[in-house]
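[09:14] KT: can someone run the structure on this one? pasting the chain below
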Amino acid sequence: MNARASRLIFTARRYLAAGLCVMWPVTPMLAQPPIEPARSTAAWGIRTYSAATVPPIRTKNSDRLASMMRAGKLYLTVQDAIALALENSIDIEVARYGPLTAQWQLTRAEAGGSLPGVPSGASQAQSVASGQGVLGSQAAAGVSSGNNGTTNRAGGNATITQVGPVTQNLDPTIKAAITFSHRSLPQPNNIQSVTPILVQDQRVYTSSIQQGLLSGGSVTLSYNSNYLSENSPSNVLNPSVAPRMTLQFQHNLLRGFGLAVNSRTITVSRNSLKNSGLSFRNQVTSTVVRVLNAYYALVADHESLKSKQSALEVADRLLTEGKRKVEVGTLAEGDMIAVESQAATARLDLVNAQTALRQQELQLKNLLSRNGISDPLLAAAQIIPVDRLAIPDQEPLPPLQQLVEKAVAQRPDIALQKANLTNSEISALGTKNGVLPSLQVFGSTTNAGLAGTGRTVSGSAPADPYFVGGLGTAMGQVFRRNFPSQSIGAFVQLSVYNRQAQADSNIGNLQLRQSELALQKDLKQLQVDIMNAIVALEQSKARYEAAVKSRTLAEELLQGEQRKFELGASTPTDIIRQQRDLTTAQASEVSTLVNYTNARILLDQTIGSVLETNHVELSEVTAGKIAAAPSVPPVSSEQK
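[09:31] RB: done, structure tokens below
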């Protein structure tokens, strides 16, 4: 039996096994569990402060792999191998988290940065309103006992601390505080308090809401209410309540001013979300290329194994025939040494081919499974590739310029470079704006009120009826703006040399120019890569045609030498030499065939058409479920 007949029988058996599998009924493929964070479904007030639940990682393979097993064998077409890798590849699983992370980064950017400056409730705990009670009257008059037990924790109601091109907090911030205090204060001079120990019961309520502006400022509305009850007989209003409402604003006019500057992070995050699909496509392309190379390498190893088996069969037949000739005396025993050596060499070559095949199987299994050979079912399975290596008779290619344009439009890495360049230009707005000096305008308007229970104090006039009442009376004064206060001002900060901002701006611009040049270099190199891929494809095809011709001639020479040996007109050495030539020619044919396939894959990768050529839908890969059914239908659960 010659090598061609052996190859045909092997192929027939393979397709017969695959054809018998068609009779098995199909089991529907189950979708894998989601990986998206699950938001809380509680009410709005609770949902806002409930962290989303992130599902655990998916460590199990998809159902497709187990369903394709047949008596310990895995019959694979190249499309089946790609589908298994797209569903089970850990690299792709990692890449699936990219768009999800980009979405949350956009949400974070839309919320803006942290903006301090809202008055803290703690800073109001030991304070009283101006003119309220003994201490308030002393503060209004500009005098103090010097031992009132207070602690100065904050210097004023408004603190402007955020300057420069930093985005304001765009989420409304609500703060509230309530403080109850009881204090006993010694009065070394009790002319006003008319008591040696001033005892106060105080309740302070503060609340505020702040909203950052994307143009570069913020607005704060705050409410403060002080309730005070003292044991001083000199108070004409006791207890009393003093509410006030304040509207404050601050805005950048130079550094940090403008929608483009303050929204640059949002714009970059939005672009990154759009471009996250490019990164995912790039990873999918890389995975498909690795699967294609591994699959066809396994096909080549099967072809190599068949040629080594054929060589061993020829060597065994030669050994048997040689022993017969030695017995009848037509062949010297010394000639058998070369025959036996050839048989041992052929057997060693077969073992090496089997080892290479098993190693290549392991590489492919690692690509097809999420847990590799730790799965005992996959570890013990033998992969039988169904597709064969083949070269089309005609494969017309478009002109070079058309291929370059296609590569620029479809290559995800080129698109990512352009997107990153755009993001760098947007980010440069911040460093350019940072060169400007800091100039802020700020202002506030406050409406205050005061009311309490009127008391008669000997030696003094009774309380004005306008101030007699409770909280409602005081709030009426606030809303009627009976006691308004306004303030407006500006803040400027100039750096004498401004070297830090200048350096940041220039460094950013220089790096941007480097990125532009790098993109131009890659576009120029792209033309060279495409041309090299075309040349490699054409040369590998020509080499394959020459290898086929060489293998055909080697087969004919071996067959002729075998007939001469049977007639006694040839020696074992001549047959061994021809057998070695045939083995070399067969290996060369397989090698050139693999080189052509690799060159074709490289060309597709260079022009960005790997996914299109192999019918890969990114939407299915993102979902982790390939819609196409296996070429070898799965068995049902009852027949497993």
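[09:33] KT: thanks! Strands lie at 69-70, 73-76, 173-186, 197-213, 217-230, 237-252, 382-385, 438-448, 451-454, 483-493.
[09:34] RB: yep, looked fine to me
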